[in-house]
Design a protein that fits this description.
The protein has 181 residues and is mainly alpha-helical. It has one domain. It has eight helices and no strands. It is globular and about 55 Å long.
């Protein structure tokens, strides 16, 4: 289990940290593919196969973005909004299944309540971001800018709490028979 949570930590660092100097030095798709590999090793847990395929799909979409974003014109705002909304819904689905697997791991070691708190925090923030794409695109007004700042702070807080959760779960002492039961 420690390897599973270590891989989730590395995958999320690759997704969250953007070092962009002309090109993205830490491409997000690598993080999703790493997490897909981690879920592939836990296929005996309910929801892990779905999480694996959602991670692969999200990584593939990011690769498609990388190659098409420069060739497509940004004036297709409805298309980009729908694409962004679809990506957000896939991300919500992925994290739903990620936490479904984490709950199965957390239940035998007494971490179920902690896992549920992190799940609700993270999924709520992702949902709010998914339903408010206009806040980031129309943030030229003061109210839009303030809302964008609050959303950014909420996303940062949620990601930090998620990484702390993964570190805490990585440090747990697992008895494989308890977790697999």
């Amino acid at each position: 289990m420690q390897n599973f949570f270590s891989t989730l930590i590395i995958g999320h660092f690759l997704i969250f940290l953007d070092i962009n100097i002309g090109i993205d030095w830490l491409p997000d798709f690598v993080g999703f593919f790493l997490m897909a590999a981690a879920f592939g090793k836990l296929e005996h847990f309910e929801g892990s196969v779905v999480a694996k395929w959602l991670a692969i799909l999200l990584g593939t979409i990011i690769i498609i973005y990388m190659f098409t974003i420069s060739s497509l014109q940004q004036d297709l705002s409805l298309g980009w909004t729908l694409l962004g909304l679809g990506n957000a819904l896939l991300s919500l689905s992925f994290y739903y299944y990620l936490f479904r697997v984490c709950l199965q791991i957390a239940r035998p070691i007494g971490q179920e309540a902690y896992t549920k708190k992190i799940k609700y925090l993270f999924l709520t923030v992702l949902f709010i971001v998914a339903i408010t794409p206009e806040v980031f695109t129309h943030s030229s007004s003061i109210a839009g800018g303030v809302a964008a700042i609050f959303l950014l702070v909420a996303v940062l807080f949620a990601y930090v709490m998620l990484i702390i959760y993964f570190f805490n779960m990585k440090g747990q002492n697992y008895i494989e028979t308890d977790v697999l039961a």
